[in-house]
Amino acid sequence: MSRNAALIVTLTLLGMAPAHAINAKYAQQLERSGCTQVTEAQGCDIHKTKAENAAAGFGDAPAATSSSPYTGNWVATFPETGATVATIRIDDKDQVWVNDKKVSARKSDGALVFKEGMVIYTIQGDRRIKGEDGWVDNDAGTKGPIAAK
To answer: What residue ranges of the chain are covered by domains with CATH 2.40.128?
Structure first.
């Protein structure tokens, strides 16, 4: 019984102790410099001002001009010849036109997928991922890349 009581008292005391990930001085330096723990690891200097760090490229990112990573004009091409398979236009509401014909699109696993005729087009939403924007014509057995115009 006393063993359980000791365990309960220990857990209660541990639960009451404040748990801070960073100390107050470090938090003030982050606030003054405009850095975060992540940007500091990327080179943001906590000993500089917000303006100095912003000039070095650390600070608030400019507002995005579009809420969708798919927005814009795209070109699907044959990899061997570079010939255009289709021109694709996507607006900021993810409405898609293939060769000026509106088609329905759906999001699947972070990508925008749409079909026109026998060709399935896929544009990846994460623009850091390269080489995954492409088209496939399973009927003809051909495939190729899609690139932003």
So the answer is: 72-148
Torsions phi, psi of 70, nearest 5? -90, -15
Q: Is the pTM higher than 0.85?
A: no
For residues 75 and 146, the answer to whether their CB atoms sit within 8 Å is yes
Distance CA 39, CA 41 (A): 5
- Tell me the residue type at 108: S
Residue 104 and residue 116: Cα distance in Å, rounded? 9
| 46-82 pLDDT tens trace | 899 888 888 887 766 554 455 789 999 999 999 999 9
In this predicted model, what pLDDT tens digit does every residue of 102-141 receive, in sequence order?
A: 999 999 999 999 999 999 999 999 988 888 999 999 999 9
- Tokens representing 17 are 């102790």
Domain at 72-148: CATH code: 2.40.128
